[in-house]
Amino acid sequence: MGQHFLERLFSPAAVALFGASERGDSVAGRVMHNLIDGGYEGRIFPINPKYREVFGRRCYGSLSEVTEPIDLAIIATPAPTVPAIIRECGERGAHGAIVHSAGFAEAHEKTTGQELEKALIAEAHRFGMRVLGPNCLGLMRPSAKFNATFGKSGARPGSLALISQSGALCTAIVDWAETRAIGFSGVVSLGEAADIDFGDVLDYFALDEQTKSILLYIEGIRDARAFMSGLRVAARFKPVVVVKAGRHAEGSRAAQSHTGALVGADDVFDAVLARAGAVRAITIEQLFAAAQLLAAEHRVGGNRLAIVTNAGGPGVLATDRAVDLDVAVAALAPQTIEALNAVLPRNWSHANPVDILGDASPAQFGAAAEACLADPNSDGVLVILTPQGMTDPVESARAVIDRRKGTAKTLLTSWMGGTQVLPARELFAQNGIPSFPTPERAVEAFSYLASYRRNQKLLRQVPGPMAPQSSADIEGAKLIIETALAEQRGALTGIEAYAVLSAFRIPHAQVLQARSPSEAMVAAQALGFPVALKIASPDILHKSDANGVRLNIANAQAARAAYQELTETVQRLRPTARISGVTIERMYGRSDGRELHIGVMRDDVFGPVVSFGLGGTAIEVLHDRAIALPPLNSLIAQNLIQRTRAARLLGAFRNLPPANLAAVEQVLLAISEMVCELPQIRELDINPLMADQDGVIALDARITIEPAATPAMRYAHMAIHPYPSHLVSRVQLNDGIDVLIRPIRPEDAEIEIAFVHNLSPESKYMRFMQTLKELTPEMLLRFTQIDYDRELALVAITEQDGKEVEIAVTRYAMNPDGESCEFALVVADAWQRKGVGARLLTQLIEAARVRGFRLMEGQVLAQNAPMIALVKRLGFHVKRSPGTQNVCDVNLTL
Q: How far apart are the first and last CA of the chain?
C-alpha cells in the first residue's frame, strides 16, 4: 500500500529535458514552454549541446554536466539516440522517462524501429525505470502545474482522469473540455505503450485521491490480461467511461463457425466492459456526460424509466431512444394511474409517457413527477418541458424540485429550448438535478446509469473455473483433443465433439457411425426411426453447406439408399474432401422444443467468449446473440440468456409450456468449464440445442482446436482469471483444530472488517506499520475484490456459532516488474503460535512459485520477532532496510 511507482512521473521534483530549445515548432521547445508557462515548481534541466541558454535558463551539453539528481527524463531527440539517453539516465538514478520521439515500432522502417524500441525498454528495465511512450504526447498533472506535453494548451485542475492512445485526441478532448470549464486530475497519452500501458495508469488513478472518474479513449489493446486487471481494479473504486474507435471495422478473422460469423470484435469489447464494471460511450460529448453524471453519484436500481412531458412529440422521441438503448419504458402501476387521474386533465395520456398536455401548470408538473417517482415499477423519471404559451419554465422547475425531496430515485430533466429555459436549467444545476437540452440526451444519460449498475453487479462476480458440484471428466476430454492434435487435425469429428460434450455432462443425441450402406441400415434400425444421416468428413465443418444432411429417414431401406446418395452427392460437390462415412442420429420429435445456439469463439485479443441465442439453419439471418466472457456463474449465465430474443421464446406462449431454463443455464456453465480447462478449443458450436419442458439436448456440435499457446500457465488464455478454487484446502493445526484455507472473495468483506477490528493495536501496527483503527472503504475494496492474476489473498477460516470467522490472512501483490511480488501476513491474536501463519505462508509461496514469480519480498518491523523467526524458517533472507533501524527487508528466491 506504499507510493505507486508512477507517482514520480506525475509529480517529479526534477526533470531533464533532452532536445530542449526555444523553437515553438519543435516538440522539445513546446514541452519546455508548457513546463515554464504552466508554472511547474520543480527543477528543469534543459539538455542540448547546441545551446547555452533556453528561455533564460542554463542549457546543459549533456546529463553529465548536471550535478543534481533527477526524477524524470523527458526525451524528444531522434529515435537512434534514445536507448543511450535512457541508459545514462538510469545510471544517474532516474525513476522514469517520457519519450516523445517517434521512429520506433510504428515507423515505416519497422524492423529498425522495433529493434530500437526493444533496446530502449531493455535499458530502462535494467535500471528499474518505467517509460511512457514512445511516440506519445506526454502527460499532465494540472494540480501540480506539471504539463509535460507538446500540446498548445494545458488542462485546468479537476476530478476527471483521461487516458488516451491518441495524442491528437488528447489535445482535442482537453481543448473541448476547456470551453466547458471541465478540469482534469491527470491526462496521459500512451503512444506506443511499449512499457507503461492502460493497466498501469488505471491502477494509479484507481487510488488517486484527486480522481473521481476515469475516461479512456481506446484504439486497440495489446495486453488483454493487464488491461482487464487494471480496468477491473479501477472500476471497483470509481466510474470508468470508455470510448473506443473502430466500432465498425471489418473483421480480420476468418469465421469458421456460426459463432465466428455472428460475433465481431466490437461485441467482444462490449462484453469486456460489462465484466469490468465500466460504461461505454459512443461520442466524446457522451464520454463527459456519463463521467460527470456518475462522478456526482447519481445511481439507479434498474433500467425502467418513466417519462413525464407536456408535449407528445418529445415523449415519443424519448421513448424511441429508450428502445434503441434497451431502456425499459416503465409500465405504470394502478395506484400511479389513480394519483395522476386526481391531478391531471381527463384527456392526459393515461400511460407512460405521461403526457400532461401543453397547458400544464407548475403544480401539475410537480404532482406528475412525484407520482412517477413513487411508482414501484420505475427506477428513474425523466421530466420534459417545452415552452408553450401557458408554460412557466422556472416555476415548473421549482415544483419538480420540491416534489423530488424524500425519494432516492434518480430524476432527470430536459427543459427544451433556449433563452426561455436557461434560468430553469441553472436552478436544476444548483439543486444537483441533471438537466439536458434534448430528451434523447437525457435517455442516454439514464442508460449510462443503468449500464453502470448492471456492469458493477457483473464486476463483483468471481466465478471459479468449475461449476458447483461439477463432475466433468476433464482428463478424458483433454485426451480426445490431444489425440486429434497429434494427428495434426484442426477440428474434431462429430462423434469426438459429442464425446467432449459428454465429458462435461451436456446431453446430446445418441449417435452411431457407419462406413457402408449396410452399416447405416443396421445403425438406423438400432437407434429407432426416424433418423438423420450426416456426412462424416474432417474437411467439412458445416455439413448443410455441402448438402451433407438427410433428415426424417423413416425405414431401413431408406437409410441404406440415403447413405449411398448422400456420400455420392457430397463427393461430387467437394471432390477433395476426405469422407469417412456418415453418422446416424435419432430425430428429435417433440413439438415444444425451441432451437437455441451456444457457441465459443477465440477473440485474438481477449481470448474465449461464450455466445448464446436463437439457433437453427437461419442463425446468421436471425442474428440473435448475446456474449459474455468466461468464467460464468449462474448470475452471469442468466444475464446472458435474458439479453436475447431467445429468452422470450423460452417462456410459456400460445400452447407451449415453458422450457427448462435451469437446464439451459447448466449447459452454459458446462461450456464455461470447458473453455476454462481446455485452452486448445478455438471455436465451438452447438446448433441446435433443443430446449423443452423436460430439459435440453444437443443435436449437432462442431469444435475446432489448436495447440495451447502457453500450456504451462493455467488460464493464461483467458482475459479474466477464474476464482482459484484449486487452492481451497482443509488443514489441521498443531492443536488438532480443522481450518479451511481458501482464496478471499468479495463477499468476505464483512469477515475481513471484523478480523481487522478485533486485532490488537500491536498486531495492527505490526501489519500496517502505522496506527490503524479500522479498514477504510478503499482498503476493504483493495483487500477483498482482487485480481487473481496479479494478486492473491489466502484466508484461514473457522466456524463459530454457524458463521465463518477469519483467523488469519496472507497475500501477495505483483510488483511493477511483473517478475516479483510483495507479501504480507497477519494472524489474529488468539490464533498466534498455533501454526496457522506457517501453513498459510507456505501455501502462498507455492502459489507464487507456480504463478511464475522469481522473488517474494516484504518488510517486517525489527521488533516483530515471531514474524522474523517464521520467515527465516521458511528460507527468507533477512537484512536491515537501508536508511532505517526499525525495518527489515525480507526476500525469498522462488
A: 23
Q: Which three cell numbers stand for residue 191?
A: 503512444
Q: How many residues comprise the chain?
A: 894
C-alpha cell belonging to residue 762: 500491536
3-class SS of residue 194: coil
Helix (H, G, I), strand (E, B), or coil: what is residue 411? Answer: strand
pLDDT tens column, 359-389 = 999 999 999 999 999 999 999 999 999 999 8
d(CA 137, CA 188): 8
b/e map of 658-690 (b: 16 or more CB within 10 Å)? ebbbebbbbbbbbbbbbbbbbbbbbbbbbbbbb
Q: Which residues pair with 44 in a beta bridge?
A: 15
Secondary structure class of 842 (helix, strand, coil): helix
Cell triple for 194:
511499449
- Amino acid identity of 482? E
251 secondary structure, DSSP code: P
- In 3D, which of 627, 622, 580 has the Cα closest to residue 601? 627
Determine the Cα–Cα distance for residues 313 and 870; give it in Å rounded to an integer. Answer: 74
**3-state secondary structure (DSSP) of residue 580:** coil
248 CB contacts (<8 Å, ≥6 apart)?
266
Q: Are strands 157-164 and 213-218 parallel, antiparallel or unpaired?
A: parallel
Nearest-angstrom CA–CA distance, 760 and 197: 40
Cβ atoms within 10 Å, residue 223: 14
- Residue 389 burial by Cβ neighbours in a 10 Å radius (0-12, 13-18, 19+): exposed
Distance, CA of 633 to CA of 672 (rounded, Å): 8
Rounded Cα distance between 234 and 213, Å, is 9
C-alpha 780/C-alpha 753 separation (Å) is: 8
The mean of the pLDDT values for the chain is 90
Residues 6+ apart with CB under 8 A from 383: 308, 309, 365, 368, 369, 400, 411, 412, 413, 414
Measured distance CA(831)–CA(829) in Å, rounded = 5
Q: Do residues 723 and 743 make contact, with C-beta atoms less than 8 angstroms apart? A: yes
Report the C-alpha gap between 375 and 173 in whole angstroms.
Answer: 40
385 three-class SS: strand
pTM: 0.86
Q: Are 856 and 845 in contact (CB under 8 A)?
A: yes
Residue 594 forms beta bridges with which residues? 691
Quote the cell numbers at residue 680. 486448445
In this structure, are residues 77 and 108 in contact, taking their beta carbons and an 8 Å threshold? no
| pLDDT tens digits along 227-265 | 998 899 899 999 999 998 766 544 334 334 444 444 457
